[in-house]
Amino acid sequence: MKIAVTGGAGFFGRATINAAEQAGHDVWAFDTSLGHDVLGKLDALKGADVVIHLAGVLGTSELFDTPETAVDVNIRGTLRILEWCRHHNAAYVGISMPDPFPSVYTATKVAARRLTTAWHHAYGLRTSTVRAFNGYGPHQAHGPGHPQKILPTFARAAWEGRPLPIWGDGTQTIDLVHCDDVGRMLIDAAAHGDDATFDAGTGVPVTVNQLAEFVLEVTGSTAGVEYLPMRPGEVPVHITATGEGWDRLGWKPELDWDRVADTVRWYRDAR
């Protein structure tokens, strides 16, 4: 297949391009770092049999400061990619997330997912969606201008001798999934055009406290943790993949603590 990946230079984008190359596909990135824009000209998608749409603005509390930008990029941008796929006979693969959070980002992703279903039913567009849980792996951005994702936030704090910040009491659960597994699932999802959803998660719940203890152990940090009020857009919930779509693919991501440890050490070396 010929596959274009919007947001292809980003965290999941790199993993998706690697997975496509390993599977023998012709793949290229459509990304702002290359001068592309989902709200601008889409000429760089030309020739794609499939568009995997990962481009968007991320954040939890951060997007309350720029909600119009989030709506514009995450919703109108998705609509423009769906329309491009419709008019160029290309399949569409989108990325979504669990949706329990009262955040701007969640609202935009829910809307984008509903647009995907609408275009599938109204126009027969071949669509599928990967629901990504708590992704981790090397190269996940961290620092000013980037949302505070849990593993890089914990790892950087631990290596710098600072307490690990935990928003809430830490008993809430997450589902850690390696970026390479998300990339592989996005490629595999392209073969299913009936608007199916695939869970990119392991189905293994991990508490935030449990992950913090693991990071402290890997880094040897004695700084401990710091409990903070939950941020706007967050509520204390338990998130775990239920296995939607795994039977179609014949495989599922697995929780691998060695890969988690390798990622923690990557943030030491990348400082």
TrEMBL record:
Domain NAD-dependent epimerase/dehydratase stretches: 3-195
Pfam families: Epimerase
Stored InterPro entries: Epimerase_deHydtase, NAD(P)-bd_dom_sf
Record family assignment: Belongs to the NAD(P)-dependent epimerase/dehydratase family.
Name recorded for this polypeptide: NAD-dependent epimerase/dehydratase family protein
